[in-house]
Amino acid sequence: MSDEHTGACLCGSVRFKTRGKLREVVACHCSQCRKQTGLYYAATNVARENLVIEGEEAITWYRASTFARRGFCKICGSALFWVADSADEISIMAGLFDQPSGLKIAYHIYCADKGDYYEVRDGLPQYRQGRPGLLTAGPSD
Ligand SMILES: [Zn+2]
Ligand SMILES: [Zn+2]
Known about the structure:
- The longest helix is centred in the N-terminal third of the chain and has 7 residues, at 31-37.
- This protein is mainly beta.
- It has 1 helix and 10 strands.
- One zinc ion (ZN) binds at residues 28, 30, 32-33, 41, 110.
- Keywords: Lyase, Metal-binding, Zinc.
């Protein structure tokens, strides 16, 4: 089924499968995402019930805010998931998916906090803060 996607962290200790349609990819340039990834966070999103994780014991959950947790592989360090406490959905890093993923970045958020060592010139919408209607830890434009 084209509605199933698989992926894994760099070392393969954490594997996952998603069911159903994946959200468009959102690129987040906030300082937390910059520090965690070294660049920016690019993630899709799926209902928690549509995500099956294998190797969950290799995931460390870091609470970067009172609002949400970030999951990463404690062996290879790959950034994996972002999940808000109140959410029924979980964000998954686009780079983890087996290729071709069929995923596309749709827009950029928290561009005001972007690192000064790169530019975003893909012509997609750029929000200074969050995008209205998108669940994030910070304010929206
Ligand atoms: Zn790993
Ligand atoms: Zn961010």
